[in-house]
Amino acid sequence: MTTGNHNLIAANDVSGTAVYGADNSKVGSIDRVMIDKRSGKVAYAVMTFGGVLGIGGSERPVPWNTLTYDTDLGGYKTSITEDQLKTAPQSQSGWENDRDWETRTHQTYGTQPYWI
Amino acid sequence: MTTGNHNLIAANDVSGTAVYGADNSKVGSIDRVMIDKRSGKVAYAVMTFGGVLGIGGSERPVPWNTLTYDTDLGGYKTSITEDQLKTAPQSQSGWENDRDWETRTHQTYGTQPYWI
């Protein structure tokens, strides 16, 4: 029985998925997803914004729970704002092993850390 | 501050990670991980076993919660048995959209489905 839920996707195929803002305009895309090895939860989407939100083309790790999959758009909608992106910590080398950096990032976006 | 927790990994880098059995011998490796788009949880590891457990080289989706990351081994340990692998549903085309197939798979492995 095929239920048509279509909720499963190979993690590698998430790379390149578009991300849309509150007004349904494309703001960027997902370069890769970061998994918490122990819990098996997706922790971050590392996104590129292409200068749309005024932060240039730099990579930004964004907490996964700022994204919601939208079947109509065929991509993710995000609740993050331009102000949040501008004030969030830069993705310095080693950020993925830096709990202090992660804590500040979640504070900026107002999100519940995945490790709690 | 680097805490050295090292829990985050790019999903794409999970591909190729070794999986070890109860006796710490390598039983196979992860080809790719499948994510539930809505919850952001890793639902399955699609594994190859290389004939070790008597099921040939075929791909098998294995519920993610049968795997535990082992920092000493640098890979995942699995609780699944050869009998479970042999009796689990084959990974027929379209399994990832087939809730009935998924239910039988979780029943075989005795695991809690990710959608509950």
Automatic annotation (TrEMBL), chains A, B:
<feature type="region of interest" description="Disordered">
    <location>
        <begin position="81"/>
        <end position="104"/>
    </location>
</feature>
<feature type="domain" description="PRC-barrel">
    <location>
        <begin position="7"/>
        <end position="84"/>
    </location>
</feature>
<dbReference type="InterPro" id="IPR011033">
    <property type="entry name" value="PRC_barrel-like_sf"/>
</dbReference>
<dbReference type="Pfam" id="PF05239">
    <property type="entry name" value="PRC"/>
</dbReference>
<protein>
    <submittedName>
        <fullName>PRC-barrel domain-containing protein</fullName>
    </submittedName>
</protein>
<dbReference type="InterPro" id="IPR027275">
    <property type="entry name" value="PRC-brl_dom"/>
</dbReference>
<feature type="compositionally biased region" description="Polar residues">
    <location>
        <begin position="81"/>
        <end position="95"/>
    </location>
</feature>
